Amino acid sequence: MPMPALAPARILPRAAAALLCLAVSWIHVQDQGGFPGDKTPHYVANGYYLLEATGILCAVLLLVGSRLRVNHIEWLLAAGVALGPCSASSSPAAPGCPITATTRATGRSPSP
User: Fold this and answer.
1) Distance, CA of 3 to CA of 67 (rounded, Å)
2) Which are the contacts of 52, defined by CB distance < 8 A and separation ≥ 6?
3) Each residue of 19-72: pLDDT tens digit?
4) Dist. CA 65–CA 83, nearest whole Å
5) Separation between Cα atoms, residue 29 and residue 52, nearest integer Å
6) Calpha distance 42→36 (Å, rounded)
7) Where on the phi/psi map is residue 7: left (φ > 0), alpha (ψ -120 to 50), or beta?
8) Cα angle for residues 57, 4, 20 (degrees, 5° grid)
9) Other CB atoms within 10 A of residue 21 CB
10) Among 14, 19, 47, 48, which residue's Cα sits nearest to residue 33?
């Protein structure tokens, strides 16, 4: 039985979200210095690997999931791919983030 054709209204958002997931993965590969990378501490490197793999998996699910009748899982995964880096970078305990009381009060990093 042939697969039904998808309407462009369903394809375009899925393709855009898939490209954004791949972009997040690519940015993180570049940020850690390529693959396998040399990000330290090791738990940050493991988080990068997890995010990169999840972004690729999510892109694949977004592109072929509509034909497999997977409806909401890929969109929840896409939200996680987007929110993961946002929440990690806005955390004051994130490694390499110079967020201090001065930064919050003035909106600028303190001068050295």
Assistant:
1) 7
2) 25, 28, 29
3) 999 999 898 888 888 777 777 777 777 888 888 889 999 899 888 876 666 667
4) 21
5) 7
6) 12
7) beta
8) 30
9) 27
10) 48
**pLDDT band, very low/low/confident/very high, at 5 (cuts 50, 70, 90):** low
67 vs 7: CA distance, rounded Å: 12
CA distances from 3 to 6, 76, 108, 111 (A): 9, 24, 54, 60
| Tokens 């979200």 sit on residue | 17
**């509509």: which residue's tokens?**
66
Are the beta carbons of 78 and 62 closer than 8 angstroms? yes
Q: Which residues contact 99 (CB under 8 A, 6 or more apart)?
A: 92
Q: Does the bond joining 98 to the residue before it have cis omega, within 30 degrees of 0?
A: no
Residue 73, token pair as written in the block: 């899982």
pTM of the model: 0.67
